[in-house]
Amino acid sequence: SDVGSQKDRVVTEEEWLQKWEMGNIGFHKEQGHPLFQKYLDVLLNGKSGLRIFFPLCGKAVEMKWLADMGHSVVGVEVSEQAVKEFFSEHSLPYCEEPVPEISGAKMFQSTSGNISLYCCSIYDLSSSIVGKFDGVWDRGALVAVNPCDRQRYVSLMINLMEKNSSYLLVTVSYDPNKHKGPPFYVPESEIKSLFG
User: How many domains does the chain have?
Assistant: First the structure.
């Protein structure tokens, strides 16, 4: 198979939490991702006041940029540390509250109200909890979810999207037999079959 030995690889939630605790977050881009700037117009399509979803958001600086442009941002991240670092690094005051529908989950919201970050497993979310979105910035999510969970992940993403939404997806291309991931290799043919 063209995904090599990766198809059975599983990275646990604990391993992701440990990456944040150890500061092993090479995937975080302090200056934002260059492709975000390049394709921002595609995402926004000249519209204002959009709801943009950041799956597995970490502490992505692009969330602040979009909120500053007047958009509403919702992210989900399993690491509470990452979420808190996002707010402190941008000097954003926030409040924290439980998410009644999800046991143990918390929602961190900027006091301005335009950034809401859910701290839980992405698979606990649904459109009944977070609503639907005009855009998705998937910079490191599809390539981070375990290969066995891809279909489940994409089904959720499709469920969270409004009819005319934009989905920006960044993947990485390399020989999957030489690197065990994450980031995982997701061939273009698989992206087409997953998203239809």
Answer: 1
